[in-house]
Design a protein that fits this description.
Strand 5 and strand 6 form a beta hairpin. 0% of the residues lie in helices and 56% in strands. The chain is an all-beta fold. The chain is built from no helices and 11 strands. The strands form 2 sheets. Strands 2, 4, 5, 6, 9, 10 and 11 form a 7-stranded mixed β-sheet that branches. A 4-stranded antiparallel β-sheet has the order 1-3-8-7, with no helix packed on it.
């Protein structure tokens, strides 16, 4: 089983920033990204980045979050700025092989809590 180790979550006031990190073991994946899940809600896609650098974001985080990756370190990052209470969730790192628009061999991190509250 591939291991994804996440870090960087915490408690921050509205308008603050956090940077999440995720390091994968064993291989480089064609797509890496972040999902989040708030209590009582389904897990939702936040952002993805493919090996070539192309990124996509959920509309709710565009302009505030930036995803990046370091292929040499097999790591993916999520810089979160202008955080809102609605961003409060457990954030999960994931990696997969994307082929013909389908994600295969998906692996998940353990989750890191992000709480945005005054």
């Amino acid at each position: 089983q591939v291991q994804l180790v996440e870090s960087g979550g915490g408690l921050v006031q509205p308008g603050g920033s956090l940077r999440l990190s995720c390091a994968a073991s064993g291989r480089i994946f064609s797509i890496m990204g972040w999902y989040r899940q708030a209590p009582g809600k389904q897990r939702e896609l936040v952002a993805t980045i493919i090996s070539g650098g192309t990124t996509k974001y959920a509309d709710s985080v565009k302009g505030r979050f930036t995803i990046s990756r370091d292929n040499a370190k097999n790591a993916v990052y999520l810089q979160m700025n202008s955080l809102k209470p609605d961003d409060t969730a457990v954030y999960y790192c994931y990696c997969a092989e994307r082929q013909w628009g389908v994600d295969r061999n998906v692996n998940w991190g353990q989750g890191t809590q992000v709480t945005v509250s005054s």
